[in-house]
Specification:
It is built from one helix and no strands. The chain is an all-alpha fold. It starts with a helix and ends in a 43-residue tail after the last helix.
């Protein structure tokens, strides 16, 4: 009888160890997924945050990165130009 109890104890211990390992792997995968999604959704720092006046000078203004340009979509705005 003691042999059967010992075998059952060993079986239960092994099963628990395997389940714990699988659970740890699943949890680690979930944490990695959460971190990657957080990086994709997290707002990026903006060079234009808090500013409401932008002055550009020169003959042509091209190549301004989207993060450095004011967002004019769905916003009321005025563009003023001086002709020299």
């Amino acid at each position: 009888m003691q042999g059967k109890v010992a075998k059952m104890n060993n079986f239960c211990r092994d099963l628990l160890r395997e389940s714990t390992n699988e659970l740890a792997k699943a949890l680690a995968a979930r944490i990695r997924l959460t971190r990657s999604l957080t990086r994709e959704v997290a707002p990026r720092p903006s060079l234009t945050a808090g500013r409401n006046v932008f002055t550009y000078s020169g003959e042509t203004v091209t190549g301004i990165p989207g993060g450095a340009a004011p967002n004019l979509l769905n916003k009321s705005h005025t563009i003023t130009a001086e002709a020299v």
